[in-house]
Amino acid sequence: MRYEADAIVLRRTPFSESSQIVHLLTARDGRVAGLARGSHRDKTTFGGAFDLATRGRVNASRRRSTDLDLVHSFTITCAYRGLRRSLDRWLAAAYVLELTASCSWPRDRQGELFLLLAATLDGLEAAAERAVARLWATSFVARLIESAGFRPALDDCVACGAPAVLAPRAALSLARGGLLCRRCASGDRSVRSVSRPVLELVARLLAGRAPVAAPAARTVDEARTLLDAYLEYRLESRLCSVRFLDLAT
Questions:
Q1: What is the pLDDT of residues 77-89, one digit of tens each?
Q2: Are 215 and 196 in contact (CB under 8 A)?
Q3: In the chain, count of helices (H) and strands (E)?
Q4: Entry pTM
Q5: What does the pLDDT look like over 60-104, one tens digit per residue?
Q6: pLDDT of amino acid 48
Q7: Within 10 A of 70 (CB to CB), how many other CB atoms are there?
Q8: Where in the chain is the domain with CATH 2.40.50.140?
Q9: Under CATH, which number does the domain 2-78 receive?
Q10: Which class does domain 81-151+185-248 fall in?
Q11: Any idea what DSSP says for residue 154?
């Protein structure tokens, strides 16, 4: 069955000397993998269509014998060239692409995730400052956690229901999925100590609300580090791009 869909390139892997497998997030069918024959040749109809973080219109066919679709063409609608002119913007883009690939499922329609990724790439391309790019990345991982159903409990103690102490710092358990009171936090090796500004920023981003005022760069980085650790615990895997962002901090 042949189809067309809006798509964003998440990653690509070599298949042969002249072909490659491209992984796309589509608005129609979620994440799909397709074989782009001849796309590694110097002269090809694909051109630079499969550069990472490229948005376009894919024309492909499903095949009965395999989950690997056959890609016929990919027409670029947005190359996001601005991402490639700044290391900070590009690192943030690589980060959200890896998060998307890790938290999406083949053939699972995720139109909201496609719109979220597209809006985040638009925001990153327009980000004039490093702090703005980091805030876009942090907002993305928060919304991804929310949409995946992993939202941590940030009101009362997730273990006993008692009020969680928020000042000056709170205890968030990666294992239990939320805040703990002092008594329940004792002995939990997965607990992360969180400052009130970081907790407030995380709560706003999870709810899809922008910060009232521009948060401090350190607060944004600490919020992202916390959310990264939380998501990695839920996924039971490490995210490679997180390390590059940390090194560039």
A1: 999 999 999 999 9
A2: no
A3: 7, 8
A4: 0.90
A5: 999 888 889 999 989 999 999 999 999 999 999 999 999 999 988
A6: 60
A7: 15
A8: 2-78
A9: 2.40.50.140
A10: mainly alpha
A11: -
